[in-house]
Design goal:
Radius of gyration: 16 Å
Number of strands: 3
Largest sheet: 3 strands, antiparallel
Strand order of the largest sheet: 1-3-2
Number of domains: 2
Strand content: 5-15%
Order of helices and strands: HHHEHHEEH
Number of helices: 6
Helix content: 55-70%
């Protein structure tokens, strides 16, 4: 990831690396790493468009690496609510999310912040 950030920063900066360029470089690097490593792992394992839609909805808030089941359900369609428990099971199996014991019953968190960042970036484009 650090290598990709460095490459992206070098490509994005004309002569000077400032805060906006650095932030853009981080997002560019997350996009590259996500496309290469995470997209095949996550999105290939999840073929259901409903599951993909749920995943994008729970990753909409920036820097919210955890979520509560009850809160997530409020933002879902009836069809998505019907498959949500299966979605949670599948996401746990592929290592995207895990139960969050610190958050109490019904709390989950993303296993990897890079997973979350990539999903959040992809969801913002929809």
């Amino acid at each position: 990831m650090a290598h990709e950030i460095g490459d992206a920063a070098y490509k994005l900066a004309d002569k000077k690396l400032d805060d906006p360029n650095a932030i853009d470089a981080i997002f560019e690097a997350a996009e590259i790493v996500g496309r290469k490593q995470l997209q095949p792992q996550i999105f290939s394992a999840i073929r259901s468009e409903r599951y993909r839609s749920i995943l994008r909805k729970i990753a909409r808030e920036p820097l919210e690496f955890s979520f509560e089941r009850a809160e997530a359900i409020r933002n879902l369609t009836k069809d998505e609510v019907r498959v949500f428990d299966n979605f949670l099971r599948r996401m746990t199996e592929v290592g995207v999310i895990q139960r969050d014991p610190d958050g109490g019953p019904g709390a989950y968190r993303f296993c990897n912040r890079l997973h979350y960042t990539y999903i959040w970036m992809v969801s913002g484009r929809d």
